[in-house]
Please model this.
Amino acid sequence: MADHPLPEPAVAKGWLASMMLIRRFEERAGEMYAKAKVGGFLHLAIGEEATIVGSVGAMREHDYLISTYRSHGHALARGTSPDPVMAELFGKEGGLCRGRGGSMHMFDLERRFMGGYGIVGGNLPLAGGFALASDYLGTEDVTLCQFGDGASNQGTFGETLNLAALWKLPVVFMVTNNRFGMGTALERHSAVTDLHKRGEGLGVPGMQCDGMDVLDMFHVTGEALRIAREERRPILVEALTYRFRGHSMADPEEYRTKEQVAEWRLRDPLITFGDRLVAENVIDADAREQMDADAVARVDAAVAFADRSPFPSPESLYDDVYVTGGQVRGWYSVDTLHPETGSPDNIVTQSETGAVPQAMTQALEAGEDQ
Amino acid sequence: MTVVRYRDALNEALREELQRDESVILMGEDIGVFNGAFKVTNGLLAEFGEKRVRDTPISENTIVGMGVGAAMTGLRPVVELMTINFSLLALDQIVNHAAHIHYMFGGQVKVPLVVRMPQGAGHQLGPTHSHSWEAFFLHVPGLLVAVPSTAADAKGLLKAAIRDDNPVVFIEHEYLYGQRGEVPEGEHVVDFGRAVVRREGTDVTIVGISRMAVTAQKAAETLSSEHHVEAEVIDPRTLRPLDLDTILESVRKTNRCVIVEEGWPHGGVGANLAALIQEQAFDWLDAPIGRVTGADLPMPYSKPLEEIAYPHEPQIIAAALATLRDT
Model:
């Protein structure tokens, strides 16, 4: 672990609390998945808390954050309430994205968390676009773009780094190298495994940091953000981290040994950073336990909120397919789920938003499509 | 009215919108110093500067993706792709991102992006530069899709596209770039979702898509002069939203319909439109709906082969007459 002094006690405690919240949230999300309250894929960030909290902690309020399909923790670290994050996992109306996105697609515009994305490498060009807008509009905002080691092999990695360097955009590319692109080890997917070196040929210098150390994450990300903000050029940061759980909940983990996982667990950021706060008298053992109990209680409340929140109504199915108004009066679609040949009621042409065909509403209410 | 070429009408639209709205920027390969592969952006770099008219590397997916990101955070980017074939390199950003972001994030953010691209056969550019793929983009909920066939619509629809808060795939046509047409002077905006009747008629409805709206009009004149058949020619102008009402009204009058497109037959615009028309107006149809499409193959290079691989007037005339047989 790099030797950084602790920040102000309030800041240090905040980081530990944030990491604990993410850990407990993710554990509970996994339990809810096992109970089938959560569907689809569920990618947990357990083990990567320091990477998330340290990097996000270095951001300013108006900076943009963009992440991947493993992004519950990013929303929480940015200050989003756990309630709508859990409700989104449950597919509820009270979810962050009203149940449209699910685990892989969190988004909180108010906190400038510009989304989790399900396409590996798909978020890099978007990050370049945020930085382009910031630069064009003359703001001091910087974009922090996080993606995994697997994404560094996508074409968008080279394309976006080149263009960001060419246009001198204020963006920090952060590859969170957890050593596996799904189940394919770094050594099996990358010829050059020092991923921070990969930007050099594209005009984007790289830095490396300890993704298991929240302090190192904070300092290195802070320096990268400063360079992007003040020197108006992109930087590539490689955070060396590890996920303790599988790629997703549907991962038998046959591609790595239990010994390797156990070795990395010794560097669990919640343990190492918590121990240090106790050792340096920022908190005592009781306070540490209380912080963890608070995190558990907060997650309990989020589960209760998600349980209480209703599912989205069938009438809302087509909401937000389009921005309506002006020349787009509603969606244009065909109710082919319930075709009644020759029935004019069967087609919706530019209807007013909310007017789902009656047949579809009834069918959804009857659960025919479940 | 002034008479201008289609490409110059597009240029006027871009110039006027750049002047009107500081948040409008242009990005694309060779749109600046080179003045555009088809000269649509001619003179705009000189007039508006590097900040607003941006030459890009050849990185289609990232150019479009940066347009999406900039659109999410306050700009109104207009991205040019050199041909519609190259848009396949950017399909991830067009479909998985531009089209889905508003919906999948619960309506929190808008993507006011325009992606312009030309399509079409006839220049012997072979299998990677000549296709017509409005059907690809018509398929995608969340996108608006424009297929202007005249200079006036090219200008008016592009201005409307830039002002809309939805992502727009704006499909131009390489053959039409050099064609002249009347464009109203002053502010000229054409709303999406409004088809236009290019020629009135009572015997058969011909719906022409993109360049085929022009070819269909020529065919209609021949049908009238040589076969005494009065065809009504409809140009939908936009495929999302689609003005189905105008098409249905015409079909209920003529009781016959032919749909003409340059793209492939399977899963094409005509296949979709024919389904919609028969669902809505089956009782008014006196003949099966006819389709005239491009050939079901990669576009060949050789001139005689290319000529027979996309529709011309004779095929449209034959299809129209086929709907009138036995009546």
